[in-house]
Amino acid sequence: MGSFKVNLLAVAAAGMVMAGCQSSRMDPASSGPAPLQPAPSGTVSQSQLPPPGGANQFPTAPTTGNAAPATQGNTQVASLPPANAPDLTAGSVAGVWNASMGGQSCKIATPQTKFGQGYRAGPLRCPGELANLSSWAVSGKQLTLYDAAGGTVARLYSSGQSRFDGQTSGGQNLSLSR
Questions:
Q1: What distance in Å separates the CA atoms of residue 123 and residue 100, rounded to the nearest whole number?
Q2: What is the torsion angle, in degrees rounded to the nearest 10, for the CA atoms of residue 70, residue 76, residue 82 and residue 83?
């Protein structure tokens, strides 16, 4: 009777294997749920995109209180360096700066570590646009601060010993001092 039990178990196991092979999961005729119909989409329009950065990213800044009247042609826009601003070097900008923007302040580190369009920059708990700061570069009299995508965050000029003034791309006045 021992071999009968073994044969019976073998037949039962073979039956289960065969039953598994005939599962509806494996049946190609049973393909599951019906495919979804494509969703209607809106119309696509085509137009020319503006140039990157736009024609002028900065609004016209108000004149300073000590500037001559506009009729004399001697007004000063904060985002443009004055004629007497010194040319800048990377060494004159490198260091840690106290930034003041819209009544808020923070620190900005400007090491001379090559990065992006110039050198790496590190905002230290800065608010708003300055929080996105990642690099800086000098060109002539202008100090430009950039975000990680290479977009301009702010443009400044030297307005005295260890001081820079200018505007963010959003139009806020920005000062750096040591």
A1: 12
A2: -20
Alpha carbon distance 121, 82 (integer Å): 25
Query: Do 106 and 99 meet the contact criterion of CB atoms below 8 Å apart?
Result: yes
pTM: 0.55
| Each residue's pLDDT tens digit, 129-160 | 999 999 999 998 899 999 989 999 999 998 88
Q: How many residues does the chain have?
A: 178
- For residue 148, CA distances in Å to 49, 121, 131, 151, 153 come to 22, 10, 11, 7, 10
- DSSP type of residue 29: T
Residue with tokens 């110039």: 118
Q: Over the range 38-66, which residues count as b (16 or more CB within 10 Å of their CB) and which as e? A: eeeeeeeeeeeeeeeeeeeebeebeeeee
